[in-house]
Design a protein that fits this description.
The longest helix is centred in the middle third of the chain and has 18 residues, at 88-105. The chain has a two-stranded antiparallel ribbon. A hairpin with a 4-residue loop joins β1 and β2 (225-226). Helix content is 53%, strand content 2%. It is mostly helical.
Length: 227
């Protein structure tokens, strides 16, 4: 029990198969109705729960309509509209600046390339991957958020620490057709069972192949610290 399979490829494949069975309908949990709303929601979701973001965007999306509205919004007013979101002042600035660029340089449409998206303020590769996957139906990589980062390290699929390096490794280990779903499987499992502080190892469908299982191992490979 609590032992990783022989290779990272085998481990990743078994993890993917089991999580597909456990969470057959998993998908993105952010609420949006168009690409701009998706972009804004993902910017806001950095270091903030999707549940909190959805509560804020419910009124935000009814108040502002289109990139020009956000670009021309008063910075303090927009920040106040986001005041329950972490780093709301910075994120208000990112949204205004990104929307100004979208209006001026992209004809008011959210761009559909990695380079153009990551050139927008507040948009890194993770955010761009989400927008491409769920806004444009383009899968160019694996979204690596805190859940993916924690679970892939905890399960011994990767020893990398940075999201960029983890993504590159996962792109080699996980079949391309599963790149998008792999993220949502990890997020669902991270919320339901494999939480950051108190994972429910006794209830986990991956416990027997998890080298971080509290039932058999002394160290959490995600953090490198003892349980």
């Amino acid at each position: 029990m609590g032992t990783r399979l022989d290779s990272p490829e085998e481990q990743a494949a078994e993890v993917t198969d089991r999580l597909f069975e456990e969470y057959p309908d998993t998908t993105i949990s952010l609420d949006f109705s168009n690409r701009l709303e998706l972009l804004i929601a993902v910017i806001l979701s950095a270091q903030c729960t999707d549940e909190r973001v959805n509560k804020e965007t419910e009124h935000l999306f009814s108040k502002y309509d289109g990139p020009e509205d956000y670009a021309n919004a008063d910075q303090e007013e927009l920040a106040e509209d986001l005041n329950s979101i972490t780093y709301y002042n910075n994120k208000a600035g990112y949204i205004r600046e990104a929307c100004a660029i979208i209006a001026a340089e992209h004809g008011g449409s959210v761009p559909d390339t990695m380079d153009e998206l990551t050139a927008l303020p507040g948009v890194g590769r993770k955010t761009a991957n989400v927008v491409l996957q769920h806004g444009h139906d383009l899968v160019e990589g694996v979204v690596v958020d805190t859940h993916v980062q924690r679970i892939t390290r905890r399960l011994g699929i990767t020893e990398e620490r940075s999201p960029e390096r983890i993504e590159r490794e996962l792109m080699e280990l996980v079949p391309r057709e599963h790149w998008q779903e792999f993220t949502h499987l990890c997020i669902s499992h991270g919320r339901a069972t494999c939480t950051a502080r108190s994972p429910e190892c006794t209830e986990c469908v991956l416990e027997d192949i998890c080298p971080s299982s509290k039932l058999d191992n002394e160290v959490d490979l995600a953090s490198g610290e003892a349980w």
